[in-house]
Design goal:
- This protein is of the alpha/beta class.
- Helix content is about 45%, strand content about 15%.
- Strand 4, helix 6 and strand 5 (about 160-165) form a beta-alpha-beta unit.
- The longest helix has 20 residues, at about 105-125.
- The radius of gyration is 19 Å and the shape is globular.
């Protein structure tokens, strides 16, 4: 499919609230910066909502205090309505699928799901982002995961809510776009689709933070790796229906100054998870992933819907960096526009 600028320049833009500022920066301040830069929507991050709830109610609100979180969600909606920002999605709902039948973990997963649905109703959003579980000791069968997600989809459906399933490149069972697409097909529900991500896609099939080169060590070398990745992107373009892609998250990655240890850290996080949390700049700002190639593949499906910036830029060393929120958000909008220009073909 030829990608013309005229067909993509009006793609709507979103920004994840977790992707700007420091933990001490208030949610209203983040919303103002996102609005000022010209973004049209936000991904409402649960940690931001939790922090905002505690500030609003002047007490320590817990993740399971759903009455308080719903009250805060209504206030966030008011703030967004005043600015003309849509709340695209509530994110990130994690470690849901795969728990054994009858386990406390499975019971908790469904309790959390129902609580988050209440928040979605209060905040006025119709989409829940679910990341592929990164928990060990779960059932990793695609059929088992699909069954869990089907049950969640059926809980969401009466509310006209949708589920956007994303591959996390450090997941214990579904690290690639193709694996989550296979699961979504098995779920077979009209309200279940994909959240694709430039970092997660390239980070699972092309890059590796544990190697000196920053690339997956392919037996055939870099050229073979590039060809295999190219074939995967071509397959994505040809096999995923555009209507099953709910939105595309955008970020790049820094090549770590030193290769990460392959070991799980003290918190249980795998190397790619650590990389994801602190080494993800916006495109064209020092990263090395084939972001444009992933974007072209997604656009090649005919998809022309939401692009959302999800950046975790801790600097090249991952230790954090200082910046002005409004200037950073404006720079992200410039990055979005350049990405569109670089994705044009023909």
């Amino acid at each position: 499919m030829v990608i013309k600028l005229s067909s993509i320049e009006s793609i709507p833009t979103s920004y994840a609230t977790c992707s700007i500022g420091k933990p001490t920066d208030s949610l209203p301040k983040k919303l103002e910066a996102i609005y000022s830069a010209g973004f049209q929507a936000i991904e409402l991050s649960f940690p931001d909502l939790l922090s905002f709830s505690s500030d609003l109610l002047n007490r320590d609100v817990q993740p399971s205090d759903y009455d308080d979180l719903c009250a805060a969600g209504k206030e966030v909606k008011k703030l967004c309505d005043k600015l003309g920002l849509k709340i695209l999605i509530l994110q990130p709902f994690s470690n849901f699928e795969g728990w054994p039948e009858g386990s406390k973990e499975r019971e908790d997963a469904f309790i959390r799901a129902k609580g988050w649905m209440r928040i979605m109703e209060a905040a006025g959003t119709d989409m829940l982002q679910v990341g592929s579980s990164d928990t060990p000791n779960i059932n990793t069968s695609q059929d088992y995961a699909a069954n869990d997600l089907r049950q969640l989809a059926d809980l969401l459906s009466p509310h006209n809510f949708r589920l956007a399933y994303e591959n996390w490149c450090w997941s214990t069972h579904a690290t690639t776009w193709k694996q989550v697409w296979e699961i979504v097909q098995k779920v077979d529900r009209p309200n279940v689709g994909l959240c694709l991500d430039t970092f997660q896609t390239a980070g699972s099939e092309w890059a590796d933070p544990t190697t000196a080169s920053g690339l997956i060590e392919h037996p055939g070398g870099k050229e073979a790796l590039e060809k295999e990745f190219g074939r995967s992107m071509e397959e994505l373009s040809k096999t995923v229906p555009k209507e099953k892609i709910y939105f595309l998250q955008i970020s790049d990655a820094y090549k770590p100054p030193e290769a990460f240890s392959k070991d799980v850290d003290k918190s249980g996080l795998r190397p790619r998870g650590r990389w994801s949390h602190d080494f993800r700049p916006m495109p064209f700002d020092g990263g090395y992933l084939p972001v444009v190639e992933v974007t072209k593949a997604v656009l090649g499906t005919g998809f022309r819907n939401w692009f959302s910036m999800e950046i975790f830029d801790g600097g090249r060393d991952g230790k954090g960096k200082e910046y002005d929120l409004e200037e950073f958000a404006k720079k992200a909008m410039q990055s979005h526009r350049k990405l569109l220009e670089e994705s044009v073909e023909g």
